[in-house]
Design goal:
Blueprint: E1 2-4, E2 11-13, H1 14-30, H2 35-47, H3 58-66, H4 70-86, H5 98-102, H6 111-124, H7 131-148, H8 160-183, H9 187-193, H10 200-205, H11 211-225
Antiparallel strand pairs: 1-2
Helix pairs in contact: 1-2, 2-4, 4-6, 6-7
Length: 226
């Protein structure tokens, strides 16, 4: 018997999928304490969507059929995946339990590196591979690489308004410094320079480095104000 998936258009062999699901469930029931067996079986059930024979979603299937949360099931599947990936690498001790395998999950796409870690841990621990030692080895061996390739935060983009405000503030600060330098030796002019009524054009003239010219311009300005 076949049906067509209305979402994907895929032709589904119901009998074959039901048989596959039942076979996996028998294995899970029999080896429920084996993280590799359970993880691999759940992975296939999820990837092939075998759960749809009885349940609407994978999450509902996990909860109702096995009493597993989504996060717990994925822990088992990831641990099983990394262990399976290393199983074909010769002379490599495999994780003896889920705790050990979970310390290698970050390397599941690079089984050769995971194998390196296991060999190193076994060599330095008399053939044993405790989870704590695996964790330390992973962090020590690959921390530098992870840090080196970590994306650097991008500098914030300055808006037009922010740039104009910054440039204006910088210009004002430069003008203030030039005015201060000109009038520093002219105590009688300081009051004029600090007068808030002076216009921008007069403040600009106060930056004139020639003191006599500055004195002449200020005198003209004061006559115009009288």
């Amino acid at each position: 018997m076949t049906v067509v998936d209305v979402d994907t258009g895929e032709v589904i062999d119901v009998r074959a999928m039901t048989a596959a699901l039942e076979a996996h469930e028998v294995v899970i029931d029999k080896h429920f304490k084996s993280f590799t067996v359970v993880g691999q079986a759940l992975l296939d059930i999820g990837q092939r969507r075998l759960y749809q024979m009885e349940y609407a979603t994978f999450d509902i299937y996990l909860e109702h059929r096995w009493g597993l949360s989504r996060s717990r099931a994925y822990q088992l599947m990831e641990a099983a995946t990394v262990t399976e990936a290393m199983s074909t690498i010769v002379d490599t001790p495999l994780p003896a339990n889920e705790a050990q395998a979970r310390e290698l999950v970050s390397l599941k796409a690079e089984p050769e590196k995971a194998a390196e870690v296991m060999r190193a841990v076994a060599a330095s621990n008399g053939g044993k591979t405790p989870a704590a030692a695996i964790k330390v080895e992973v962090e020590t061996r690959f921390k530098e690489t992870t840090t080196r390739h970590r994306p650097q935060p991008k500098a914030p983009v300055e808006t037009v308004e922010a740039r104009e405000a910054r440039e204006h503030s910088e210009a004002v600060a430069r003008d203030a410094s030039r005015i201060e330098a000109v009038i520093s030796g002219w105590p009688s002019l300081r009051g004029i320079a600090e007068n808030p009524e002076l216009g921008d054009e007069v403040r600009a003239l106060l930056t004139e480095p020639d003191r006599r010219e500055a004195d002449r311009i200020i005198a003209i300005y004061l006559r115009g104000r009288s």
